[in-house]
Structures are given as structure tokens and as C-alpha cells.
Amino acid sequence: MKPSPLRIHRPTTIDETLDLLSEHAASGKVLAGGQSLVPVLNMRLAAPSDLIDITAVSGLDELSVAGAEGRAEITVGATVTHRQVERSEEVAVANPILGEALSFVAHPAIRNRGTTVGSIAHADPNGEIPMILALTGGRVEVRSTRGQRTLSAEELNIGPLETSLESDELITRATFPALPAGSRAGFDELARRSGDYGLAGVGMILDVEGATVKGLHCGFISVTDVPEVLNLGEAVSGAHLRDASEVADTVVDAVRDFIDPGGDIHATADYRRHLTGVITSRLFRRLCRTDSAQGRNTDSRMTGTDTERRRV
Amino acid sequence: MTTRLFGQKITRREDPRLLTGHGRYVDDVSGSAIAAAFVRSPHAHADILDIDVTGALDVAGVIAVWTHEDLPGHAAERLPMLIPNPSIVAPHTGYALAKDHVNFVGEPIVMVVAENRYIAEDAANLIDVEYNFCDPVVGVEQAREGSRIVHEGMEDNVAAHIVQNVGDVDSGLDSAPHVLELDLEFERSACMPMEGKGVVATWDPGEGSLEVYSSTQTSTGLRAVLAAKLEIPLTKVEVITPDVGGAFGVKINHPWPEELAVACAARALEATVKWTEDRREHFISSAHERAQTQWVKVGFDDEGRIHGLDVKFWHDNGAYLPYGVIVPLNTSTHIMGPYVIPSFRVEYWSLYTNTVMVTPYRGAGRAHAVFMMERTMDAIAAELGLDRAEVRLRNFVREFPHPMGLRMQDGAEGCIDSGDFVTSLDKLKALVGWDEFESYREQARSEGRQVGIGLACYIESTGAGPYEGGHIEVESSGRVNVWTGLTTHGQAHATVFAQIVADELGVPIDSVQVNTGDTRKLPYSVGTWGSRGAVMAGNALHLTAKKVREKALRIAGESLEADPDDLEIVEGLVQVKGDVSASMPLAAVSVLSNPLRYAFDESARAATAFARESPADEPSIKPGEQPGLEEQEFFSPLRSTVANGMHAAIVETDPETADIKILRYCVIHDCGPMVNPLVVEGQVHGGVAQGVGGALYEKMAYDTDGQLLNASFMDFLMPFASEIPHIETDHLETPSPLNPLGIKGAGEAGTIPTASAIASAIEDAEGIPIRSMPLDPSTLWHMRAAHAEGDVARSH
Amino acid sequence: MTEAIGTEPTSTIRLTVNDTLHALEVPDRKLLSDVLRQDLGLTGTHVGCEHGVCGSCTVQLDGEPVRSCLMFAVTAQGHEVKTVEGVGNDPENPSDVQQAFIDCHGLQCGFCTPGFVTTIDAYIDENPKPTEEEAREAVSGNLCRCTGYQNIVAAVQRAAELRAEGARQ
User: Which ranges carry the 2Fe-2S ferredoxin-type domain (chain C) (predicted)?
Assistant: First the structure.
């Protein structure tokens, strides 16, 4: 298990990077943390001739939260690691669901090197981050020698492990809007082992005004081909928080109807559909229960009555 | 007297070296050696029509490309059937490099040797093999059904078939008021040590000799087979097993195709050639274990006492049978477990399939046996409405020795030599809180939680012969060098054998250096497998140390003018019992034992103070003696010792997600007196962890084409720390009468009953019969649905 | 692919490992794990899976545990690499984490152990007083096939104690 021959380029500026990408568009690949790419190279499932290592490029390491309250945005540069995002207090305040989901991404040693933007570019429907980008209405800034464009998650993700990026394009940064005031957000997944891709996972943003539900958006991992967002605003709007149990059934039915899981050696499609419903139900009830302003789960990070991280 | 080290929790003497990066594993040897990589079959069953290697030959850095045609003499013949058995009706083994056919995905076809592994893999990728596809046989059902045949010339896929009887099972079943039948299944897993296999072979053209480093579990066996296959004198081959990164059985088969091919290449190229197995290779071309389909018919009375047990099982042995039928044989001989079964019949078929071959994995077939018996015990309890522990208690063997009436893997009649099952069960029930569980269940139920408790009992034949040896030398420095032919892969041999030797020789443990798995010093050994290391080599070294001690006392007696019987050795000093003033260091005895004319060091000079004038009419070395304070001794037992144990598990199953969580795991273990309880506990912990893997996570998932779908750590779910429960242990130490130290093996114990105990607990939590392991949440969820619909068959 | 063979791209790199700067000529595709083991002779770093799951090859990069099998040596330039030998290479004088493993019987075959040692060495700085559950979580990214993890979990807590004692002295 050794990679095929390849040349590694180590540009230090964005312009240099874009030139290299343009030059090697045919069989070049961007290398950042490499935590998804290098296993594929070691197994020789891919054999690019050139890797453009962006980790030494200046200007791609921005991690910031800026903007007026209620309209703040988190900017994550292309070389920022999962761990940096996960450890950021500012991020946790602005968009707690991002850090919550990140803690499910593999293990710390992988998150120390893997980048958040890299996960987005990898576009794995089992991955937590592409879904969170979609769910929170985020976007990416994309550059090439031909110019710059901004893509929403919906525009970016076109299939499993497939994006609308051209081969000479680089995602320079991702932007995650802060959660609006009054919203409550949470993420949960069930995996066979800690750190594995979830058999199913759900991210949820619940808009609440006083004790009344105003809106609900759900995103999923491992049970849809691309990170699609399900808007259940109509189904739940106007419900009182204390009626969560009754509303939950409606939500679960809608979710099970919406997703399109496949079966594999770890779980059947039917089980994944069922499981997504269970996670949805638990997460929804949890969010209706929590009382902190942005839905941070103060009693437990997990669903249901359990006090510890659960795994299937 | 010094404190006896036997039985002490001595921290491991190998640890500081291994922890600071000074371990030396096979891939650490000869870092710059040229490297081999293999082209392996991507198809499960095919004829090879043509191999085109021209692309590979053009790659810069490629040194040689070998196909079967390039293998010389005996090396081109089929690999040996290592352990023949009369039950084997169709022995088939593979070649070092495939000849004309391939029978599983991963079978080696071409070897590329290049400057380094990167280039070797580049070249291997450029080799074209043309195939004619055949229908693959995958799984027990397809093999048994027999419309597709793995090996040409056979009419079915039966590799081996045997029936063994104890008493008359038909009348046993007839006499029983109750009869139950169970269909059971056990899936494939694998040893999966963290270090794959590896070999580094060096040919010395001047000497005409081969030196091989291998991560094998039997350096002596590998040496013999390489000498035979390369057709060179045994004295021209040496095999050294350095540190080994875990084995668990998979490294006992020999020679692996790669070991032979690499040795051939080393000789042909007059070079050092290295092959280090990577993880993907390990998944698809080493060995697996465990798939069996089983049928049990049991007759019992109103009290739950078994009258007769009739068993058939079908064992998937993969494409080849180089290690014989050890796995199904062990299954067949361990089914009766710790119970008195008045009549018993076992019949098995070992079947070829187009998948990776099956050789022993920790427990070696015994986990399957326990699964049959313990699922049966639970079924009897359920049928009669009796407590599951009580049913077991009523059937226990209570008198020892207890002849089993079956021929075991060592060829001897099996016999449970020792144990106290009643006490073990008492201890287990106390440890897990068996009798208090119903109140816990009620409490959990009130919280909306669903819990269950289960148990499993087992016996394990350990410490099989035929023999093992020890070699001890006391240097003139006082340092004690110890050799065992056994290889070592985590069992703390450097510590436990030092304890045994230091006790007998009366020296500080720090002066004892243990060497393992090196045929240059001790070419007689059988290997490390079957929980035999401590029993066999431990006793051999105990006997060897006794001989060294006797010689030391005799020599010291002459110098000190004392009767050897009046002497003792304390802290490396030979002294008259109770009289410290009359003493000499063991180091000095070593000097005296070897009447060299050269005083080469301090202790040699010091020893002259003790040298007695030899009588003029006696030679320096008396007839029948050898120079040096050095002895070799062997231990060969009558039969295997039989260890035993009992496990209990408490699980919680999520009513909605069908998630299975082990809340508690308790072990009672009886391996006789423990040389080092720290090490025994470590062995039990590791065994249980592998058992948990086999119960809930690990499974080799083949598709119908014979492709292994989960050949990576991403998809083969070996448990992390987060998946393994805290393990609670207690011990019973009933000594074995079969060896001087009274010890029984401990290496495999933890793994054997784990899947059964967990199945028992899940069944208790769910109220659904559990007949197949491993069990994952998705499967359990579907079983619930089927059970709810009254579909008992689908719920296994 | 054929074109590249024989004209394998190589680079001259400067790599800081265990506080020593090395100048090396390596193929661009050579993994950090292989360069550590083969070019620098630091064979304490073990290769168990080459797809980033097992953790045997874990080293510290600027103080944080990473998989050396998922990095090209070329890209480790400009970083400080610390291997198990850098944590402690003297069997007579093991580091606190290494001593904790001895005390707790935290290893058997020793193959995965260096990856645990480098992981835990960094972890107990981050969390100087882990609970048993935290200790278990901390080592849950590394596979061990021998120990059943229980004694490794104990070693995490023991190592934290030893480090605290060391800091007090």
C-alpha cells in the first residue's frame, strides 16, 4: 500500500497555487490535510501525477467570526484544521452545531491534520461537515486563474463525492453563518464504533420564538446522496414547545419519507431509515427541551435520556 | 530464602525496550533491503491463461519478476499439508506462486523484487494476467450443496469428514423425556494482529546458507520446511523470530507462500530480500477463522440433566487446508465442555470454499464448540423454566480427572485433569450479582431500559505436546542466559520464564536474560500456539534450571567441601544452609565448571580462590560431564492440560435503535497456579476484547463473487477502547497434576466463551432466541420485527 | 503512469525530527512513516494499516498527534516532528507515559504501543487529570489487538499522575 509516483508542489501564495492548479488541471489534485486523500492514494484507488500542497500557502489560514450580532459569519480558511475550528470558543458561541458535529469526525489525530474545507471539497455524503454547511446555509469561495465565484452548498454538491468544482479551482474558504437568535441547533449520529462514519446522522435547526416553534430545518448524513436540507417549517410552525412529543411523530414521518438510504454490510436501508427517524425524534425532543438561547445542549450532548455518547 | 517470584505481579522486563522505540520487529531488520511485492488474484476462482510481465520489467529499479515457472525444484511443488489427519479425505494446498489456477481473491501469482516496496508495487501494477473465470463457491451453504466445486477432480467440496462417539447417543436421546433441536451459525473473523506477517531472507553465497527473519509462531518449523523446499542441509538454514507484533494464530502456518518465494529470491539474487505484508494483503491473503453452520439435538430430563447430545457441523475451511483440520477438530472435542454428557456423537464436514483459507485463531475452534453447548444449555433452561446457572450446575463434572472419551488435537485421549466448576460458578454468580439481577432488571425497566444477563462456561485443552525445551547457561559474570525455542508475541516470556528460572536458581531476576525463537541456539521446539507457552516451555525451563542448580551445587560442594544437599543458592550466592560464611558466587561456580586456562575477567580470577587441586588421577572434566554451567532439558507431557473458566455479561439493548451495549463483563478463570497474575489478567483482557469483537463487530463480509467487501480497518470493525467494556476478573487456581509447576494455559481463554456469554445476555434482554453470531444492531432490529410477526425461523 | 516510473520526482527536504534537523533526498511520494523508519532509522514508529485507522504510526506534529502514514515527508517540512524516541529513548530512564505503561501492564506485543505513547504524551498536557471515561475516549483513536485496552486506560491516568508529580518536583 504505497502511493504511485507523484510530484508534490508546495506553493506559498494563492496566485502560485492557482497557476499550478491551472497547469496541472488534467491530473493534479489539491492536498491539504490529506486525511481522506492519502488513504486513497496509498490504496492506489487514485493516482494523480501532481499534488498541490496548500498547507504552506499564506492567507488560507483564517479562522474568524465577524459581523453584527445576528448576522455574524464564521470564516474558515482552506488550511484550517478541524481541531482549530472545534477548539474555537468564538465558533462555539456563534454556531454551536459546527463544533458539535466536528467532534464526531473520526478521531482527534485525524482532526489535528484534516481540514474543514477539505471535508467540504471531498463531498462525502457520510461526512458531517458538508451537511452542516448545507444546513446552516453556508457557502464557499472558489478561485481559479479564471476568476472567483461563490457557491452555496446546494450549488457545490452535485452527487456523492462529487462537486461542481472545475479541476483548476480551489476552495479558499468556507463561510458558515451564525445561527439566528432564538434558534436551537443540534447534531447527533449513531456509528458502529466511535469515530466511524455514522450509520445515520441528523443535524437540526429549530427556530423558536418564546415557547412557540417557528421553523425547522433538518440535514442528514449517510442517508441521502448529497447534503439536502429538509424544511419542515410548515409542519411544525406554531406548535408549542411542550407539545414536542406529538409534533415529533410528524417530523419523523416527514424525515423517513424524505431520505433515501442505501444498504451495505453494516446496516440495511430499512434499518437506516428507521434509525434516522429515531435520531430525529430524540434530537427534536432534546431541542424542544433545552432552554439556552442557541440550543446548546446543556444537560447532555446526546439524545434521549442518556448522559453519555451513544453508539450503535 | 528469597521471596518466590512465581505468583508475583512482576512488571514486564521487555517493556522498557518496547516502549522507547527499541523493539525490533521483522520490518525493522535490514531497513535498506530490496523488497518484494506480489500480484494477487482479483478473482475468487479462475484459470490462469497467460501472465504478461513485460511492463514490469521495464520499470527502473525492478530487479526480478517471478512466476511459478521460476520456482526451483521442490519449491515449485505444492506447499505442505503440515498436520495430516485420517479424517482428511481430500488434502489440497496451494503453491508459493499460483500454478494454472487461483482459488481465492488474494492468492499470490507473481512476485516482483525491486529496489524498494514503492517501485515493486509500481511494477506489480503493470503485470497483466489473463483469466478464464469459474463459478466461485462462497459460504458453507454453497459448499455443502455442491453444485459448484472448488477443486478440480473432486465431486464435492468435502475436505475432511469425521464421526466421534461417546456412548450410544441414539439410546441416550431415546431415554430423554425432552428433546430439542437447534440450528446455529458462527461467522468468519480473523486474528488481525497489529503487525502483519513479514520475512527478511539473506543468502550467504560463501557459506551457502540462508538466514531468515520471520514473524512466524514457529521458527523451528519454518527452518525445517525451508531447508526441505530449498533442498539444502538443515544446518545451512537458520530462522530468527525477532519481536512479533501480535499473532493470535495467523502466524503459525508455514511456510506462507511469501516466505518460500522470498527465500528463493534471496538465494537466486544472492541478496537480502524483504517482504512486509501490508494491511490489505493481510485481509485477503493471510488466514481467517470461524465460519461454521451447526446443528444440535439434545435429550434431557425434567431436571435439565443431559442424557444425549447429537451434533453435526459444517466448517468453512477456505480454499486450502495447509494446517489440517485443527479448527474443526478442536470444535468437535470441546463441545461437551465442563459437563457430564453420558452419550455424545459429533460429526463434521470441513468444506472447501473460494475464500481465504482458515487456520486457527485464538481459541482455535473452541469458541464454536462453546457456542453450541451454551446455546443448548440456555435452550434447556428456557424449555424447563429453570435458572440458566442451575441447569449448568446440575450437569457439571464434579470428579477429576474426568476422561472425555475423545481423541484430541494432540492425538491423546482427552481428559479434564483438574478444576472445580461448582466453586467457579459460585464465584461468577457472586462477582456479577447473578441472584440480584432480577431486581436490577425491574429497576431498569422502570426507567424504560431493557437489560439482560447471560453466562457461558468452557473448558480448554491447553499446553499440548509433544515437547518443548529449555537451555540455560550461567556466564562467568553471573549473568544467566535462557533460551526457549518458542517465539514470543506479547506473552511476556522474557518475564515469566525469568521468574521460573530465577526461583529455581536462586538468582536475582535482573540477572536472567530470556531469548526466544532463535534456531541458532535451540533448534528443537514446536512453537507458540494453543496456550502452550507457559505450560510447555515454563516446565521445560523449570526442569532445565533444576539441572543447572544440581550441577552448581555439586561443583560448589567440592569447593566448599560440603554435601550438595546442605547447600542452597540465595541471591546468586551458593552457601551452606544457615551458614553464610561458607559461600561462593554462582559466577565463580560457572568459572570452575569450565576449566579454561585463561583468566579472562575479574570473576575468573576471583574463582581461583575456590579452585581445588584436582586429584592427579582424575581428568579436569569427569566422564559423562560437559564443561560449563550450562544445561538443556525437555518437557514432554502425557497429554494436554485442561483449563477452564466462566464468563457472565450484562447487556443493555436499546428498545428503538437495537444498539447493544455491554454494561458489565465478568470472568472467572482457572489456569492453575499463575506464574504472574499481571500477565494472566492481561491475557484475559485481550482475549475478551477479541471475543467482544467477534460477538458484536467483526465479520468477514464476502459477496457472492468471493470478493471480501471489508478488507480495511474502515469497514472491518475491530473494536477501539470505546467499544470494549471494563472487564472484572477473579481466579481459581486448581493445579494440574500433569506437570511439575501444576500450570494450565491461559493465552486463549478470554476469547473462547465471549460470544456465547453475550448471546445469552442479548437473548435474555430481548426474549428472542439468539442462534447466530456476530450480531449487529441492524440485524437485531430486523430480528425483532420478524419475531413480532411470529416468524421464528427468520429470527434464527 | 508509465512515464513517471523511472523518473520518479524527488525532493531535497529539511526535516526536524526529535529536535534534530535532517537534510534528506526523498521521493515526493514517500510517506513520513517510511522516511522516519527507513531514512532516519527511527523504527519505533510502526506501520499497521497505511490508511490512517490503526494509529500505530502516530507521531506528534508541532505537539499534536497525527498519522505519519497519511503525510508525505515533503509536507512535514517546517513542522516539528516528535516520534516515540523523542518522547523517551532510554530504556533505563523511560518518560512518564512510558513508565505508566510499565506500571499498568499497558502493552503486550508492543507494536501499537508507540502510537499510544505519542498520543497520550500530548493528551495529558491538554487534560492533566482525566477521568476513566475521558482516558478511554483519549485512546479511542488507536487500535490495540492484545490488551483489551483496560490497562492502557489505566496507564493514561497513571501517566497524568506521574506528569503532575514531575511538575511539582
Answer: 11-87
Q: Which cell numbers hold the place of B201?
A: 531472507
- Chain centroid to CA B66: 33
Going through B506-603 in order, the beta strands assigned E by DSSP cover 512-516, 567-570, 573-576, 579-585
pTM: predicted TM-score of the whole model, two decimal places: 0.96
Q: Tell me what the mean pLDDT of segment B211-231 comes to.
A: 98
User: Are residues A265 and B701, on separate chains, in Cβ contact within 8 Å?
Assistant: yes
Q: Taking CB atoms and an 8 Å cutoff, what residues of chain C touch B22?
A: 44, 89, 91
Which of A4, A35, A47 is opposite residue C52, by nearest beta carbon? Answer: A35
- Domain boundaries A63-177, corresponding CATH code: 3.30.465.10
C-alpha dist (Å) from residue C5 to A250, B55, B58, B529, B561: 60, 11, 9, 44, 78
Give the tens place of pLDDT for each residue, B730-740: 999 999 999 99
User: Whole-angstrom Cα distance, residue B36 to residue B112?
Assistant: 5
The residue of B283, B659, B778, B780 whose CB has the most chain A CBs within 10 angstroms, and thus the best one to mutate to test that interface, is: B778
Cell triple for residue B585? Answer: 558466587
A7-53 and A183-305 share one fold: no
pLDDT band at residue B615 using 50, 70 and 90 as cut-offs: low
What's residue A294's pLDDT?
46
- The domain locations on chain A are 7-53, 63-177, 183-305
Spatial separation of the C-alpha atoms in residues B514 and B545, rounded to whole Å: 13
Residue B425 pLDDT exceeds 50: yes
Asked if the C-beta of B115 comes within 8 angstroms of chain A's C-beta atoms, the answer is: no
B122–chain A Cβ distance below 8 A for any pair: yes
Task: Calculate the alpha carbon distances from C120 to A195, B114, B245, C149 in Å.
Answer: 18, 38, 20, 13
Domains and CATH numbers, chain B: 18-134+191-285 (3.90.1170.50), 385-464+639-795 (3.30.365.10), 466-635 (3.30.365.10)
According to DSSP, the β-strands at B772-773 and B178-186 are: parallel
**Which of the pair, B538 or B407, is modelled with greater confidence?**
B538
**Calpha distance B733→B419 (Å, rounded):** 8
Task: Give me the mean pLDDT over the B524-548 stretch.
Answer: 96
Is C94 buried (19+), middle (13-18) or exposed (0-12) by CB count in 10 A? buried
Q: Which residue has the cell 451495505?
A: A264
Which top CATH class is A183-305? alpha beta
B360, three cell numbers: 486457527
C4 touches chain A (CB under 8 A): yes
Q: Give me the residue from B121, B447, B657 closest to A275, CB to CB.
A: B657
**pLDDT of B236 higher than 50:** yes
| Alpha carbon of C150: minimum distance to chain B alpha carbons (Å) | 6
What is the assigned CATH class of domain A7-53?
Answer: alpha beta
Query: Minimal CA–CA distance to A138: which of A150, A153, A127?
Result: A153
